[in-house]
Amino acid sequence: MRTKLDHLVNAALVSGSAVPAFTCYDFTTALAVVGAAEEARLGVILLVAPKTACTPNGLRLIAALRGLADDASVPVSVQLDHASDLQVIVASVAAGADAVLADGSSLSYADNIALVRQVRAALDAQGASDVVIEAELGGLAGDEDKAFGTDDSTHDAGMPVAGLTNPAQVADFVERTGAQLLAVAVGNVHGKYKGEPNIRWDVLQEISARTEVPLVLHGASGIPAEELAKAPSLRVGKVNFNTELRTGILSTLQTETAAHRADGENLQGLLARWNHSAGAFAGTTLELLSA
Ligand SMILES: [Zn+2]
């Protein structure tokens, strides 16, 4: 069923839970994620990568995800992830996205604020004032769509981490941007962690003391389950997963393709294995983050 991302996340936090968000490059994965959420009777977030959304087929995928979300028996939000291009944002919302990460984290502090405000103004002008905006403060290392592992040695355990969210800026940033959710950089990275992840729970705690809006943890693939489970206690109401989901699907396809080819070019059977892999990961993650 249709939901507002901030309502979904705030409701989860009230009950001591966080909502997982999964990047969907295709409809098979999205069906698996929504199926797992329905089975768990929990809300979920479908993320669309900006590289997907900037193509005509990507906009068709968003429209398809909109239909899937509205038809689901649990609350499902469709969010455009990491977007900075106004045209892509406006087109994605027109196609059916109900939330956007307006990502100016690579810009200066002032330009980051200006970008988020521009996105709000563009959506208001589009008659899409109900679209929820997440903003990001602090820089995340790594690539969202490909996981090679980061060479940035600053992410090694015990070393200071570059680009951390500055807690002193949080209240001002949230107030001036009007952001409804805040993505933070606390040692989390996109893609694979080099060595053990060094999540700065102390910084996260400082951030959570400075704002009322729910916090978002990107790059959760590779963070140990017992660490992720404590995220909601620090106002982290949304946790983004991408790499681990891809790893599971690709590994399943690698293992299963030969047998399904031998079984009469059985694409339907192979898609069922794909669905099973993505659904199992989504189900485990939903369970992990729910109180
Ligand atoms: Zn991200």
Key phrases:
291 residues, binds zinc ion
Helix and strand layout, with pairings?
Blueprint lengths: L4 H10 L4 E5 L3 H14 L3 E5 L1 H4 L2 H16 L4 E8 L2 H10 L3 E4 L6 H17 L6 E6 L29 H11 L3 E4 L16 H8 L6 E3 L7 H4 L7 E6 L1 H20 L4 H23 L2
Parallel strand pairs: 1-2, 1-8, 2-3, 3-4, 4-5, 5-6, 6-7, 7-8
Bound molecules: zinc ion (ZN).
Q: What string gives the helices and strands in order?
A: HEHEHHEHEHEHEHEHEHH
Number of strands: 8
The coarse silhouette is globular
What oligomeric state do these chains adopt? single chain
Strand content: 5-15%
Structural class by sheet pairing and helices:
alpha/beta
Radius of gyration: 18 Å
Task: Give the fraction of residues assigned to helices.
Answer: 40-55%
CATH architecture: Alpha-Beta Barrel
Q: Please tell me the overall pLDDT.
A: 93
Q: Termini separation (Å)? A: 22 Å
CATH fold-level name: TIM Barrel
Low-confidence stretches: 152-162
Q: Please list the strands of the largest sheet in the order they lie side by side.
A: 1-2-3-4-5-6-7-8
How many structural domains can be distinguished in the coordinates? 1
CATH superfamily, called what?
Aldolase class I
CATH class designation: Alpha Beta
Unique bound compounds:
zinc ion
| Major sheet attributes | 8 strands, parallel, barrel
What's the total helix number?
11
Q: Explain this structure to me?
A:
There is one protein chain. The chain has 291 residues and is of the alpha/beta class. The protein has a single domain (5-289), classed as Alpha-Beta Barrel (TIM Barrel), CATH 3.20.20.70. It contains 11 helices and 8 strands. It has an 8-stranded parallel β-barrel, surrounded by 8 helices. Helix 7 (167-177) links the parallel strand 5 (132-137) and strand 6 (181-184). Helix 5 (86-95) packs parallel to helix 6. Zinc ion binds next to loops.
